[in-house]
Amino acid sequence: MKALLPSLLSASAALLFTTSFAQAAPPVPDNLKTGGFEVGCQAWTFHDFTLFEAIDKTAEAGAPTIEFIPGQKLSPEEPTVKFSHDAPQEVWDKVKAKLAEKHVTPVAYGVVGIPKDEAGARKIFEFAKFFGLQTVNTESVDAIDTFEPLVKEYDIKVGFHDHPKRPDHPDYKMWDPEYILSVVKDRDPRIGSCADTGHWVRSGIKPVDAIRILKGHIVSSHLKDLNVPLPSGHDVPWGEGVSDVKGILEEYKAQGFVGPISIEYEFNWGHNVPDAKACMDFMRAYGK
Q: Tell me: the pLDDT tens digits for 232-252?
């Protein structure tokens, strides 16, 4: 027993450190919160437009934050230039200036593939550091051993995103919250789930059930409300569909998760700013 005591104490200390670290994440500034959560737009909502236009539309929707996507065209003036972690510094500088002009804060990046080679993965984390991002969202489970040390080094979270269940692709497991849990439960607490609630609905899963399965392991979210609980369901403004958005937010609150949450509105592509604004209005009403 005496021989075991030091190792037991070490294990307890390590657990205490991990738990304390997870709980000691810096608070989200109040100016980025709506209804008690850090909510903004996923640039994919406006992917038919350039990034500069997506930033304009995010501001028009009343959202204080944005989640970048890789490869979006930069601007109407430079439509052949693409924005990503592979873009040159001068492109990053232009984006940072545009964000400042519109008072929009970038908080996340994804969904982006993270390579298994350390140099390639590091480029993504350097990009995230430059923009002050909180989270990188990916489905690159095979690269977890590569990026876990970078998560610790840069103090940037990684969320595993879920797309819908694929009957024609049985090897795809990201839709299953139990699978995501098996991947992240023994990893650094900054590695967790990017909870795409709409894709869970399309997979026949109630989002609140999935969130409870992943309790303590959600680091970001793509929040959707769908008109019907079917794979063919399309987005509607929050609170108008079948996804129980209020229940989702209540469960997030109970778990202490406040964001980043992205409005990823995949419908009415050319004219969805009013829909994104309706989601922000829902959040404001929720917080009253």
A: 899 999 999 999 999 999 999
Task: Decide if 165 is inside a domain.
Answer: yes
Q: Position of tokens 């230039």?
A: 81
Domain contains 146: yes
pTM above 0.85, yes or no: yes
Residue numbers of the domain that contains 167: 29-42+108-286
φ/ψ (deg, to 5) at 173: -120, -5
* Cα 227 from Cα 213, distance rounded (Å): 24
The more confident residue out of 189 and 17 is 189
pLDDT category of residue 12 using cuts at 50, 70 and 90: very low
The CATH number given to whatever domain includes residue 254 is: 3.20.20.150
